[in-house]
Amino acid sequence: MEANTIIGTVNKKGQKIVEPEYLFFEAPRQQYFMTGSEVVREAIRRASVDISVAYPITPQSEAAAMVGDLYVEGYVGDYFRGESEFAVMSQCAGASFGGARVFTTTSGPGTLRAYENFPMWAGSRLPILINVMVRGINSPLNIQPDTLELGMILDTGMLIWHAETAQELLDYLLKGYIVAEEPDVHLPIAVVIDGFFVSHTKDMVMIPSADLALPPYNPYRSPVPCMDMEVPPVRMMRDPFVMKSNYISYATHASWQQEIRAAIERSRKHTIRLIGGLIEEENSDADILIVSSGTAVAQGREAIRLLAEEGIRVGIVKVKTLRPFPHEEIRQATKNAKLIFVPEFNVVGWMAREIKAVIPDNHRVIEGPHVAGGMTMPPEVIVEEIKKVLAGKKEVVRG
Amino acid sequence: MGKEKIKICDEFYDIMPPEYRELVDSATYGKEGRGWKDVGVAKELIEEHSLCAGCPESIAFRYVLACLPNPEDTVMVGSTGCTSLVFPHVAVHNIHSLFGNQNAVASGLKRALAHRFPGKIKDVVVLAGDGATVDIGLDMTLQSWFRQEKFVTICFDNELYANTGGQESGLMQKGFVSKMAPAGKKFDKVKLPEIAQESGCHYVATLTVSKPNRVEKAIRQAVLIAREVGPTYIQLYTPCILEIGKQAMEGLQEMRDSEGPNERFAFKEYISEEAKAYLASLEKEKKPAAISSTQA
After folding, report:
1. What is the tens place of the pLDDT at every residue in A18-48?
2. Which of A95, A190, A196, A277 lies 20 to 30 Å from B96, alpha-carbon distance?
3. Cα torsion through A272, A274, A278, A283, rounded to 10
4. Where's the Thiamine pyrophosphate enzyme TPP-binding domain (chain B) (predicted)?
5. Cβ neighbourhood burial of A334 (10 Å; 0-12, 13-18, 19+)
6. DSSP for B154-171?
7. Contact B91, A231 (CB under 8 A)
8. Which positions of chain B have pLDDT values less than 70?
């Protein structure tokens, strides 16, 4: 196919175009100690991105600015600052409609300002990759991490992967393009990290050589026409299905929405192959489980260690993809658990709701602990919550 | 693209939709002299549309389509409104994404096309109503001009939100009573042509669609200047006869009445010095060619 002919060639920047699998699993990697923002830069350096649009909002500003440096260095085709997140996501849409591989970043209130675009991206089958660095949503004013915005983005028709570490951030950014651009998926993807915890702290990351890059996006593998006039215009559509009140238009609209949801589910096979399953388990045969995503999992791991010191055995299930949601995997992993704790960095507990919706006997789910407004979640808070419930000091079954 | 690309495989010719066969056989694509006179002859310039009987926007739409110098490599970006009902009938790719974000979408699109097809002409034309251009999308309209994005913005100014039933818009005349302006609009019609000029547009024109030659010239100049020099803006009066209380046959007269020397849509045109120089260079290119052909 066309993609094969480009493998082994060299791009304008002198990077060798390699098979994605080679870049992900075989290419030698070197260890670096860098912030999440720098990791974003290194992922995008290798991602053959055509266009990136940026707008400042903490904590994603730094990464967005670093992508600008890549543009000056010649690794990114075009780059500019939009006038607001709504405009940025619209500019990304235009670029993607035109057949470009697109990258942008957002955070908190910016994500909400941009919001109307996300279901439009999905409905238009635009495989834009957006790095969401979650933070609090006003008011009261807060720039610290909070995953409330993620709960709101769940049902836009996008793929959503939640990275726990800088290493996952690097891998998800690169692998995300490959899954999102598959013809049977072809949807936007949000690669999420918890702002500051991942974006602004340094971590050890294994990175392949900067001389290697992903194959560029091939817009003609899209299930909808690319808007570049290189293929015949769709003049044969004599009956507009938009806004016309007839049975066909209703049926088209309804089935299109279903198709987007089906495409999310179809992404599983590609995702499982590339990121090794939609969940990760540790001691999942324990009576008590912690189930969560992002850095709440990291704090959960520490809580497990503290509890083990006291002879309490607790397991953990890490949810890597929020869309597709790993229903069956979570059902299996939690089938023997008596209590399921869901620590979350938000006030509403959307992750607990998601889990409750897919498992039997969901009175086993303890919603929390919750921290919100940018508070950190010390492992002791998780430990305390678990002990309270075990001591019968907290009601387990909730109405 | 060109007509070559839309040729039908011989074996499939008889089973292709008649509209498609017609497009391939006799579209105005690739013809240098295409213009408004092709309206009514070429089927791809909207044979049918879903607008109201007598709607001035429908004829404006046809003129715009007929006057695109390079339809085979033009992508149009629309916005929510009556235009989004017509676009599916049009033989030019178009994008309708959200209400008001047309200039932002066009910015990304134009840059993507410039990146993917360096050295190839790819025109982007925004076509939206006054609500999308001047109210909800004003920020993105202006910012695309500030950034000198190389595409045309055409505003179908009907001085109200027609598609939603005649509410007040920024381009509505002061004092006009409409839904959401029950005591009459309190402020003047927004001076977008002047703002466009100040914001960096290299070509700005205000007119109605009652004179097709004039529309044709404006559209062609706007596209050519946007392609090479920078952003351009055209504001066309396309009254919503339904919402201002006119009969189906009165649209043309309404436009004529509004383009008198002291009226709101008196013909005005601004061309930047850079754009003038560019147009002059195009003229020069034409002339030697004409001389050489006569000599030959």
Report:
1. 999 999 999 999 999 999 999 999 999 999 9
2. A190
3. 100
4. 89-235
5. buried
6. EEEE-SSBTTTTSB--TT
7. no
8. 1-6, 288-296
- DSSP codes of every residue in B25-78: HH-STT-TT--GGGTTT-TTTTSS--SPTT-HHHHHHHHHHHH-S-GGGEEEEE
Q: How far apart are CA A148 and CA B273, in angstroms?
A: 52
Give the one of B19, B73, B115 whose C-beta lies nearest to A50's C-beta: B115
Global ipTM: 0.94
> Which chain A residue's Cα is nearest to B126?
A94
Of B23, B50, B85, the CB nearest to A235: B23
What pTM was estimated for this model as a whole?
0.94
Q: Distance (Å, rounded) from C-alpha A186 to C-alpha A169?
A: 21
Distance from CA of B203 to the nearest CA of A (A): 23
| CB spacing of B97 vs A120 below 8 angstroms | yes
pLDDT in tens, A366-387: 999 999 988 889 999 999 999 9
What's residue A239's pLDDT? 54
- The number of C-beta contacts closer than 8 angstroms across A and B is 156
Asked if A117's CB is within 8 angstroms of B97's CB, the reply is yes
Task: Report yes or no: B124 and B95 within 8 Å, Cβ to Cβ.
Answer: no
* pLDDT at residue A125 greater than cutoff 70: yes
Contact B266, B259 (CB under 8 A): yes
Give B127's strand partners: B154
Q: Alpha-carbon distance A366 to A387, whole Å? A: 12
Check CB contact under 8 Å for B50 and A240.
yes
Q: Which B-chain residues 23-42 have CB contacts (< 8 A) with chain A?
A: 23
Q: B-chain residues within 8 Å CB-CB of A242?
A: 84-85, 88, 96
Query: How is residue A2 written in tokens?
Result: 């066309």
Nearest residue on chain B to A115, alpha-carbon basis: B98
Residues in chain A, overall count:
399
Give all domains of chain A, ordered by start, each with its CATH number: 8-221 (3.40.50.970), 280-391 (3.40.50.920)
